[in-house]
Specification:
The protein has about 140 residues and is of the alpha/beta class. The protein has a single domain, classed as Alpha/beta knot (3-Layer(aba) Sandwich). Helix content is about 45%, strand content about 15%. It has five helices and three strands. The radius of gyration is 15 Å and the shape is globular. The chain starts with a helix and ends in a 7-residue tail after the last helix.
Length: about 140
């Protein structure tokens, strides 16, 4: 994940995206997905587009994700926050409030693995927008 985030930071500047960082939240109260959603909301920077990662979301191909990011950038959004739920998934209200809900397929993935997959796809999206040869489809 760190490698892809570094790559994104280097490649994203010319296309107006990046750098990216990881912010972790932990609901120590044990109150579940609703309490976690409140912590996630507080962690999202003001004005950022919110993309919830959830198996019920929309599946994009890599160029489609690149266009989603470019659309937010071109609309003047100050950033994008990709939220990944914990073991209980995201609270329904967090999905409902999101600007987009993204799925990596109908399977449920461990959140640490989703971080790596998302980091790679964000780097790939920036590469597509920059016209770099990383994406070969």
């Amino acid at each position: 994940m760190d490698d892809y985030l570094r790559r994104l930071g280097r490649a994203g500047g010319p296309v107006g995206l990046g750098p990216a960082s990881v912010v972790e939240v932990e609901d120590r109260s044990g109150r579940g997905a609703g309490a976690e959603a409140e912590l996630l909301r507080r962690a999202v920077p003001k004005g950022a587009a919110v993309c919830a990662l959830d198996e019920r979301g929309r599946m994009h191909d890599s160029p489609g994700l690149a266009q989603l990011l470019a659309g937010w950038r071109d609309a003047g959004r100050s950033g994008a926050a990709f939220v990944i739920g914990g073991a209980d998934g995201l609270a329904p209200q967090m999905r409902d409030e999101a600007d987009a809900v993204l799925s990596f397929g109908p399977m449920v993935w461990p959140h640490m693995l989703v971080r790596v997959m998302l980091s790679e796809q964000l780097y790939r999206a920036v590469s597509i927008l920059a016209g770099a040869p990383y994406h070969r489809a």
